[in-house]
Every structure is written in structure tokens, then in C-alpha cells.
Amino acid sequence: MATFFGEVVSTFSRAVDEDEGEEDEEIRRQLAGRRDVSIQWSSETRTTGSAVSPNFPCSAFLIAVGANAVGFLNSFVQCCGSWEVIGAISLWDDQVKGKDTSGQQFPADSSCLLYRLTSNPMILTCQCNCIVAEDQLFQWAEKVFENIQTRNLNVIVLSSSSVTEYKSSRSIPSIPVPFLRALKTNALQETPHCQLLEQPNVISGLSAAVLTYCQVRQIPAVLYHCYSDITELDTLTIEAFKPVLACKSLNSIVKDTSRSAEILKQLVNANNVQSNLYT
Questions:
Q1: Nearest CA to 127 among 117, 137, 109, 113?
Q2: How far apart are CA 54 and CA 75, in angstroms?
Q3: DSSP readout, 174-214?
């Protein structure tokens, strides 16, 4: 068939084209399903809310993203009091199918767990020791926070990255490493306990997604980001988060850190042993 401009174009079968379109659409639906973020709750926590998911009253929610932030949470915050696992966040549906979560039994490969302080159920923490893909970030924040009552809620996010990502007019070698920088939402009244992150630096990943979610919904939140020259689990990097303990949300929780050094040493030693097994 020729057009008015003289070129020859091929004809096509509408039936074949529609069949291929339906197959492509089905493939896209399957891929989208595999990108779903799902939360499993223990049988005890499900009884506190709806039949599907609980709705937690919460005054303080601490989210640790990455090995060093999780290490700080374990060593300096969750070393105080008794904590129970209440949920597991899974990034792939096929990781959770067919697994029983009764009695707080979660998949052994769960790398994103939710905890509650037994003596004060209004205090929640999340340990996220995995990489959340870019197309899952908003969904992760939305699904986690839709199960938490946001009235009178304060959020603290901890994360870290390589100092090579930090931009400064000063010479980077002249800056003591590791160091903290903070970002906060407009709703936060408390002054952060370290210097605010300077422009033109930006934060990306899950910690940025959570802070953005809180900003849009006017939830008081602060992000403490540690820049370090060591990206693996590291004692000095973990201890760089210690100014966070001065936050009002933690004053009533963290009263005795005498075991912190011991717990921190155990974490680093266990990580070194595991690293040697894979080298």
C-alpha cells in the first residue's frame, strides 16, 4: 500500500496485534505483582486491629536503613528493655507464599523487621537491612504508615552512605569522618542534634522516601544521615549516631547503655565471621 508521499508501508493483522498486546499486558501485570511490597503481621498483632492488619497507636517510630544504622539501633536503643517482633516487610510476593506466620514465626530471610517495645507499645522500630528498589520506595512508605496512627507521631530515620557522596566547599580530607548531617520536615519542632545537611547535597533511597512521605503528610520527622569512609558494618560509623540519643523521643527509652559496647562488639565480630565465610 502506498501513501501520498510515495513510500510503501506494510499492512498488519489487527487480530495478531491485539493478541500480542494482551500477552504483553499480562506480562506487565505479572511483573508489577512481583514488585509488590507486603507486610506480614504476627497473629497477636492482627488481633489488635482489623482482620487484615493492625492499626498501631504510636508516639515514636525509629526506622534504621542499612547495616550501620541497624547496628546502632540494636546496640544503643533496643539494648534497653524488651522488644518483640510484630511484623516483617517483604519485597517479593514469592518469598512469603506458603509460609506460616502464626506465633510470630517470620521467614528466616526477612531483612526488614518491625519491633515493638513491650513495656511501652507506643514505641515502634523498623530494621531495614536490605535494598529497596526505586519503584518500591513510595509503596514501602505508604504500606508501613497506613498501619500506624500518625496523630502525635514522631519519626526518626537513620541511614548512612559513603563520604564520597558528600559535597562541600571544604576539602573532604579535612573533615573528620564519620560525621552526621540532618534533614527534617517542617512539622518537626525539635532542633536536630547535629548540623543540617548543606546544599547541594541530596539524600536518596528509602530514607529519603520516608522523609518525603512525612513532609507531605505533615508528620514530624527527622533524618540523621551518617557519612563514612567505611560502608560495611563499622564500630566508629555506628557510634557516630550517638547524638541521636538526645532526641526527646528516646529520652524515656534509652536509660542504660552499659551493654552497648558489648553488643556492638558482638555484632561486628559476627559480621566479620560471616564476611570471611563468603571470601
A1: 113
A2: 28
A3: GS-SSEEEEEE-TT--SPPSSPBPPTT----HHHHHHHHHH
Which tens digit of pLDDT belongs to each residue from 104-148? 455 545 679 999 999 999 999 999 998 899 999 999 999 999 999
- Neighbour-count burial of 12, counting CB atoms closer than 10 A to its CB (0-12 exposed, 13-18 middle, 19+ buried): exposed
Rounded-to-integer distance, Cα 155 and Cα 210, Å: 9
Question: Model's pTM, two decimal places?
Answer: 0.81
Non-local (6+) Cβ contacts of 221 within 8 A are: 154, 155, 156, 157, 184, 185, 187, 188, 210, 211, 214, 215
Peptide bond into 178 cis (omega under 30): yes
Give CA separation, 222 vs 207, 210, 251, in Å.
10, 10, 16
pLDDT in tens, 4-44: 444 545 454 555 555 566 666 665 555 555 678 989 888 77
Neighbours of 243 (CB within 10 A): 13
Cell of 167: 559535597
Q: DSSP secondary-structure letter at 61?
A: E
Using DSSP, state whether 64 is helix, strand or coil.
strand
Residue tagged 530494621 (cell numbers):
127
